[in-house]
Amino acid sequence: PSCGCGKMAARPNFPPAYSTGMPPSGAYQNQAMAQRMMRSAYPGRGHANVGQRFQGIYQGRVTDLAKKKVADSKAKLRPKPKRLGDKMLSQRIRDLVPESKTYTDLLTFEQKLDATLTRKKLEIQETLKRPLKQKRKLRLFVSHNFFNLPKPNETDISMDQDSKPTPEWELKIEGRLLDESGARPETRIKGKFSSFLKSVIVELDPNLYGPDQHIIEWSKEGQAADSDGFQIRRIGDCSTKATIILTLHPEPIQYKLPSKLSKLLGVHTATRPIIIRAIWQYITTNSLQDPNEREYINCDKYFEQIFEVPRMKFTELPKRLYPLLGPPDPIVIHHQLNPDAPDSKKLVCYDIDVEVDDPVKSKMQTFVGTPSNQQEISSLDQKILETVEQINTLKLQREFYLGFSQNPQKFINEWLASQSRDLKLLSGNKVGNKEAERKAAYYQEKWVNDGVTRYFYQKVSQRRSELEQALGMRHP
User: Which range, 64-68, 356-360, 403-407, 436-440, is most confident?
Assistant: First the structure.
């Protein structure tokens, strides 16, 4: 047949029953229907395009099947994860070797230990999601000293006025973290004094040092190195007052509550989660949640004064709360620099409460994040599995030789029969019972009629297929 382009169209590859020269009844109708379906599903010019498209689809499916087979073969070659049952010894081995009970007990203990470690790791991971802090004392040392002061009643006419040393004073601000007892310096936590501060401002007398030189300021910027203290040196020999303003750098960030809300909740300065938790506790204690509309808060007179609304949603609470929060109050220290003060008055100590990371947190992170012994445990597990496989192999060999030693003749006969069956399975021959097949009663069972019918049907179908292919070659 022609496809309308002057070329002979290729015959579609239909099943053998429809590609013969003498098709059965209704075959042409089915063939035409299949062609129409092919044209409607894959529009193109003639049967040649349809055949090419079907050929491409077939090749694509073959390629996908080949890829799947390659992936399955790689998956088979990939080592399977070992289970606890692979380490277990069979009951036969445990009966032969009573000492293996110790090994079984160790396996049971290992299973319990693994379960405990897994549970603990999950608990630690949940704990690490929350900040682990400890309250410690930061001891602050403020000291001053004067240099090159003229001695009392000293008159040296021979020394020139310009060559005399200039009197100076020095102000030191140092800090040291104390341990839990508050008596000794902390050695486990490595943190310098400036790491706890956000800024330091020292204000001097503007009448003595001018309106532009009386303020000294330090602020934490970027990755600047931390220090154990600050040192300020200025010219002067008279008594002056220094105001030291320290702004702490807490982690996580803390906020100061307004006075009304602070008195209501009993919280002065805290982090946002703690403030929200305190508000929720106040709501539940005073039954401020609307019983009918649970997403609303019915403000009492105190909440109404603070948030300025009689009723609000829970989702509105952060929006109304955060503008009320402010930065924590700085620490203000007034220190008097007096050249005539005794040494005991020149050094003053203050204790400041700070929060530091719990030393256990680093150990938890190390325990969870660094599987230091995982490789060693895996290698030992592999050795155990190899040893168990060797024991099983030795068990089979023992049973083999033991059976041979007890009754050699019977053992060899059974072994030869087993090898014969295996050989028939490998060679593709069917295994049957020759003794049963030798008797006539074997062929009078119920399955014989069905088997004979299936056999003849298979032979007839095979012969018919051969004839149809031969006829199809003669009549293309």
Answer: 403-407
Output the CA–CA distances (angstroms, integers) from residue 116 to 112, 360, 377, in the order listed: 6, 19, 16
What's the pLDDT at 236?
86
Give φ, ψ of 352 to 5 degrees. Answer: -120, 135
CB 21 within 8 A of CB 472: yes
Span 96-102, average pLDDT: 88
At 237 the pLDDT is: 85
Q: Please report the pLDDT score of residue 313 as a whole number.
A: 92
Compute CA 15 distance to the chain's CA centroid, rounded to the nearest angstrom. Answer: 55
Judge contact between 208 and 240, C-beta under 8 A. yes
- CA torsion, points 220, 225, 226, 229, in degrees to nearest 10? -90
The secondary structure of 121-154, three-state, reads HHHHHHHHCCCCEEEEEEEEEEEEEEECCCCCCC
Cα 217 to Cα 200: distance, rounded to the nearest angstrom: 6
pTM to 2 decimal places: 0.53
Q: Is the pLDDT of residue 340 over 80?
A: yes
Phi, psi for 173 (deg, rounded to 5): -125, 110
- 10 Å Cβ neighbour count for 468? 19
Contacts (Cβ under 8 Å, ≥6 apart) of 42:
49, 50, 53, 54
